[in-house]
From TrEMBL, chain A:
CDD domains: Trm112-like. It comes from the Eukaryota. It comes from Rhizoclosmatium globosum. Pfam families: Trm112p. One of its GO terms (biological process) is tRNA wobble uridine modification. Belongs to the TRM112 family. One of its GO terms (molecular function) is protein methyltransferase activity. The lineage of its organism: Eukaryota, Fungi, Fungi incertae sedis, Chytridiomycota, Chytridiomycota incertae sedis. Transmembrane segments: none annotated. GO terms for cellular component: eRF1 methyltransferase complex; tRNA (m2G10) methyltransferase complex. InterPro entries: Trm112, Trm112-like. This is Trm112p-domain-containing protein.
Automatic annotation (TrEMBL), chain B:
Belongs to the eukaryotic/archaeal PrmC-related family. Pfam families: MTS. InterPro entries: DNA_methylase_N6_adenine_CS, Euk-Arch_PrmC-MTase, PrmC-related, SAM-dependent_MTases_sf, Small_mtfrase_dom. This is S-adenosyl-L-methionine-dependent methyltransferase. Residues 34-124 form the Methyltransferase small domain. The lineage of its organism: Eukaryota, Fungi, Fungi incertae sedis, Chytridiomycota, Chytridiomycota incertae sedis.
Amino acid sequence: MLMCHVKGCATDNFPLRIEDAELEQVEVEFNEDFMRRMINKIEWGAFVQTAFALGVDQLPATVPENIDTEFLQRIHRVAMETKLKEGKMICNGCKHVYPVTDGIPNMLLQETEV
Amino acid sequence: MKTPSLIHFTEKDYDHVYEPSEDTFLLLDALEEDAGLISELQPTLCLEVGSGSGCVTTFLGFLWPHAYYMASDINPHAAAATKKTGFHNGVPIDPVLSNFATGFGARLHKAVDILIFNPPYVVTPSSEVGSSGIEAAWAGGVDGREVLDQFIPHIEGLLSEKGLFYLVTVKENRPLEIMAHMKEVYGLYSKVVMTRRAGIEGLAIIRFSRVEH
């Protein structure tokens, strides 16, 4: 999941910057209706920025007006089939590092950070 | 509907991860009972808080495969188990190691179409609450409500307009009081979808929503 998990500070905290990324391609069945609904749940700017930073895809800065099947398949590949297997997600605001291990982001904070 | 296969776990895994039990199965039955409603609402984004073995979200994925499934757990063994169960049953689940949904910050604000929480509801001393080991799966503190009561203020903010929230309770949690509180403070309607007595536990699955179903 290349979208969004954030916690901690008030400014510049989304999207998290990803470093030392090891990506993994998985196969997920494409469902056009679902992708059409899912696009509305995605923070588009952050999604585009992250996909570009990881060298996954260069997507348009805004969602096209007419979304065709081909475009949805492209989003499907990025959002559903490209996984961050290992790496670090770093908050640009507070510099907190959230490690990702075996595909699972660790968003737990120390008690002093909550 | 078939129950998710858990053959990828050994007895040893259940030293660290809550083994699906009566409460889990009642929750599966309640989701199945609501299968019509769920398909009608066409949920896009589903989140299970405290997903444990991953059995429940995987089952939801069987009932309605056209959604993005996220899960959170405070126990690293459970987060890994959730991913594994989804994988072995063909339901992609993205778990996050997190306390409730805090790891998502405001990103999930009014975005969750199906929210599920089977909290640690067992009445225990308060001192047993707050671990990230397997005790976190059941130790509920006073009235078995301490963990649920921490999550309650976040529920309304997570639910989408059409969102459904499924909660497992036992009678010691005083479910009627929870239902009244959710209506009064957050304007959420609720309905008891299913009840069952399992040994000493009087279990109930309650469904909350912004609109009455």
